[in-house]
């Protein structure tokens, strides 16, 4: 199989890669580009662990082909912190202990970032609905919701 | 395996018609990639239609709406004009999958995946939506209910691609609604569903009606007798009773772990009744 040459933008950087036509963007990010933040939970779009933002839309990178990223704009969890300064969501996830095993966390962080970008002052219900595409088997979600609420407050004040 | 991203419909149709082996059209990929991952399909050609001009847009035309085949359900939810005219279609499209899936999934994909439980299809059938199909012989338009022929099968010929879903301009006093039953509150596959589309006269009497049921037969059912139960009447108790009875009777459901035949029949009547009540209120009926 001939490779597909792709030129795209990831977290503000121009990136070029070759991938197979049936290779998912998740596999490209993890195995070719070393961006292992996005995780593979189910590989079928059910768990949200591979969430990324593609041209301002939250998507599962396991349901996107690497070839489709040509000319588009990708944001992953690796782009959230600025140097050593964590994004408020990351900081609040730590403070609220909103993670245990951590597999789902990058997906939750990206989904929460997308949620707050579109709705800076969400209700608890809106947060729960907004994050319903992300599964966590450890926390029971409550701490995640509190962390997102707290981060929203910090970000509003900023 | 090849991946191509044609820029025009002519090129896409030509590539598809000239391909040998299995070809798959890629829009949102929320069904295709799952089937590829599961080993159910290994296409020789993946034809990504998202770069084709106009396919990612919702256009309001003199005739109504033209929803491009690559329009995500999330985008449909953001269109105030579409939501205003066809709230039932939008609520059906918005029920598909999580936010992550919403950002990718399309109603044309939902239609072509040909699942009897597809959420957007009963709403589209009730709306009298048409599919604009481009193919080697030119373009043709068919009612959406003519596209799926059996679970997983469509009437599309080799080289044909659905370019858009067309919705007619609404007469005044029209409303539509879609409801489904699932055992959870969110993100599940319909066990039974119902779409209803009504137009009323100035007195609130139903002038025209279309009723469609999902997940109770191999394909979505357009139940003409159910529409007849409503036409020429206000939405009184007798009309609703008759609607529910006809809908329950029209079902040809399977028995499986998500619902028995008896349950599906009963719920089809209940949902049709509730959807009709909502559609009637949306049309301004009292």
Which key phrases capture this entry?
heterodimer, A: 158 residues, alpha+beta, Ubiquitin-like (UB roll), DNA polymerase, domain 1, 2 domains, 5 helices, 34% helix, globular, B: 286 residues, Uridine Diphospho-n-acetylenolpyruvylglucosamine Reductase, domain 3, Enolase-like, domain 1, 5-stranded antiparallel beta sheet, 4-stranded antiparallel beta sheet, 11 helices, 14 strands, 2 iron, 2 sulfur cluster binding (chain A)
SSE arrangement:
The complex is a heterodimer of chains A (158) and B (286).
Chain A: E1 4-10, E2 13-19, H1 25-32, E3 51-54, E4 57-60, E5 73-75, H2 88-95, H3 105-118, H4 124-130, H5 142-157
Parallel strand pairs in A: 1-5
Antiparallel strand pairs in A: 1-2, 3-4, 3-5
Chain B: E1 2-4, H1 9-17, E2 23-26, H2 32-37, E3 45-48, E4 58-60, E5 64-68, H3 73-78, H4 80-85, H5 87-93, H6 99-102, H7 107-112, H8 120-127, E6 130-135, E7 138-143, E8 148-150, E9 153-154, E10 161-168, E11 174-181, E12 192-200, E13 206-214, E14 221-222, H9 224-230, H10 237-250, H11 261-282
Parallel strand pairs in B: 1-3, 2-3
Antiparallel strand pairs in B: 4-5, 5-10, 6-7, 6-10, 8-9, 11-12, 12-13, 13-14
């Amino acid at each position: 199989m001939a490779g597909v040459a792709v030129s795209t933008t990831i977290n503000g950087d121009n990136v070029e890669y070759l991938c197979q036509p049936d290779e998912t963007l998740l596999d490209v990010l993890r195995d070719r580009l070393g961006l292992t933040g996005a995780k593979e939970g189910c590989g079928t779009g059910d768990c949200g662990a591979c969430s990324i933002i593609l041209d301002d839309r939250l998507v599962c990178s396991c349901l996107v082909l690497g070839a489709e990223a040509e000319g588009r704009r990708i944001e992953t969890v690796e782009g959230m912190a600025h140097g050593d300064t964590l994004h408020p969501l990351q900081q609040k996830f730590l403070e609220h202990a909103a993670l245990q095993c951590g597999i789902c966390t990058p997906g939750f962080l990206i989904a929460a970032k997308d949620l707050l970008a579109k709705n800076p002052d969400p209700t608890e219900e809106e947060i729960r609905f907004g994050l319903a595409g992300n599964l966590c088997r450890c926390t029971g979600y409550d701490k995640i919701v509190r962390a997102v609420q707290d981060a929203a407050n910090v970000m509003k004040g900023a | 395996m090849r991946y191509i991203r044609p820029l025009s419909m002519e090129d896409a149709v030509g590539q598809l018609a000239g391909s040998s082996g299995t070809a798959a059209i890629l829009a949102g990929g929320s069904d295709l990639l799952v089937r590829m991952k599961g080993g159910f399909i290994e296409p020789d050609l993946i034809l990504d239609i998202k770069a084709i001009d106009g396919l990612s847009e919702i256009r309001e035309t003199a005739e109504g709406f033209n929803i491009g085949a690559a329009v995500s359900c999330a985008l449909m939810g953001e269109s105030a004009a579409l939501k205003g005219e066809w709230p039932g279609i939008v609520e059906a499209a918005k029920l598909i999958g999580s936010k992550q899936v919403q950002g990718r999934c399309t109603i044309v994909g939902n239609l072509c995946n040909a699942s009897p439980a597809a959420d957007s299809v009963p709403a589209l059938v009730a709306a009298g939506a048409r599919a604009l199909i481009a193919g080697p012989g030119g373009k043709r338009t068919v009612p959406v209910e003519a596209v799926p022929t059996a679970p997983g099968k469509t009437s599309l010929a080799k080289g044909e691609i659905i370019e858009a879903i067309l919705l007619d301009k609404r007469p005044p006093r029209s409303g539509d609604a879609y409801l489904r039953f699932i055992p959870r509150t969110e993100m599940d596959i319909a066990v039974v569903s119902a779409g209803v589309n009504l137009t009323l006269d100035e007195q609130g009497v139903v002038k025209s009606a279309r009723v469609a049921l999902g997940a109770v037969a191999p394909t979505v059912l357009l139940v003409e007798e159910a529409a007849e139960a409503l036409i020429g009447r206000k939405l009184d108790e007798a009309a609703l009773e008759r609607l529910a009875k006809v809908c329950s009777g029209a079902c040809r459901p399977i028995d499986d772990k998500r619902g028995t035949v008896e349950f599906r029949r009963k719920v089809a009547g209940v949902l049709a009744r509730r959807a009709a009540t909502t559609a009637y209120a949306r049309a301004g009926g009292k």
